[in-house]
Design brief:
single chain; elongated; about 20% strand; 2 domains; BirA Bifunctional Protein, domain 2; alpha+beta; 7-stranded mixed beta sheet; 9 strands
């Protein structure tokens, strides 16, 4: 018993001398670890009687509890002293300006997409999206553009291999939808990014976005197409907007038209926005080519349809007076913050 008390007294003296956390840990390891001085005393119990073991074991446990309690008190004291020292050394200069995060607004690119989707959903369309990497079969062949056809030159795109490419128009989504529809009516729009081999300048980019629309049903005609696009123009630009069709060519529609909208800036009088013509070209459209219907399982004698394609950046540039298409992709927060207000009619 005297040996236990002596070891406890020595441990408390060393603990009192400890001036750092590492010193306290060293004392703990010296006396309380598995091979520590107090723990080793437990080996002597095998030489004692049953009654002596009870008393001896209780004394060792009491000594351990006392030492552990004193060690915890010492550690708590040293940790508080360390924290106080750090606080005294780490002064804060309250005259320095605080850190602030600049928040932007939604890119006008996405504002236009959201508005177009809202307009066409209101007309009963559903929104379909597809992969930007697709097969030649869907991007060209099912759209009446066979291999080696000269019409491909208009939409020369970026190839991964002979059959895999970055889509040059979102019409590829329409091809997928028609294939899955099994000859049933369709009324969809397909927004998304597209890619073509092109020079990058103020009005062109190798990457741009489209919203294409497709309607297939019985008794669909050019009158339905004109009424749809006229309603779109009036909701998108001005309630007084008018549209006109000009004959054109697209391999997947017949007949095909370029669609102009009356200038929303000068209302047809002529200005720099419309190049003094009173009209602005905004999209291409036409009746779905009978070959496209046949390849997707539709009988062109029963079903007809129309399709159209709108350039997102073009609409945004006209709508907001943006002078360079590349601004949409530069992530300049000063540019984006200019579009925090909705353009009213």
């Amino acid at each position: 018993m005297e040996e236990i008390q002596k070891i406890l007294e020595n441990s408390l003296i060393e603990l009192e001398k400890a001036s750092s956390i590492s010193d306290v840990v060293a004392v703990k390891n010296l006396y309380l670890s598995k091979k520590g001085k107090l723990s080793v005393l437990m080996n002597k119990m095998r030489d004692l009687s049953i009654e002596e073991r009870k008393t001896f074991g209780k004394e060792i446990n009491d000594a351990k509890i006392t030492l552990e309690s004193r060690i915890n008190e010492k550690l708590d004291k040293l940790n508080k002293e360390k924290l106080l020292e750090e606080l005294n050394n780490e002064t804060i200069d309250i005259t320095l300006p605080g850190n602030s995060l600049n928040s932007g607004e939604k890119n006008p690119f996405y504002k236009i997409i959201d508005e177009i989707e809202e307009i066409f959903i209101g007309m009963g369309y559903t929104v379909e999206k597809g992969s930007e990497v697709d097969k030649d079969h869907y991007v060209f062949e099912l759209l009446n553009i066979p291999k080696d056809h000269p019409a491909r030159d208009m939409q020369d795109t970026l190839y991964i291999d002979n059959e895999t490419l970055l889509r040059s128009h979102t019409s590829a989504v329409q091809a997928h939808v028609m294939e899955k529809a099994n000859g049933k009516p369709i009324k969809i729009i397909c927004p998304g990014k597209t890619y073509r081999r092109d020079d990058d300048d103020m009005t062109h980019s190798h990457q741009f976005a489209q919203v294409e629309g497709l309607v297939i049903d019985k008794n669909i005609n050019m009158g339905n197409l004109k009424a749809t696009l006229e309603l779109f123009a009036r909701k998108m630009f001005s309630k007084n907007s008018e549209i006109r069709f000009r004959s054109s060519y697209f391999p997947f529609t017949e007949p095909s038209v370029e669609v102009d909208v009356s200038c929303f800036n000068c209302h047809g009088k002529g200005c720099n926005v419309c190049k003094n013509s009173g009209w602005i070209e905004i999209l291409g459209a036409g009746m779905v080519h009978p070959n496209v219907l046949k390849m997707s399982g539709y009988n062109p004698d029963i079903y007809s349809g129309f399709a159209f394609g709108i350039g997102i950046e073009r609409v945004a540039m006209l709508r907001y007076g943006i002078d360079d298409i590349r601004r949409f992709y530069q992530n300049d927060i000063r540019f984006i913050k200019e579009f925090n207000k909705k353009v009213e009619d």
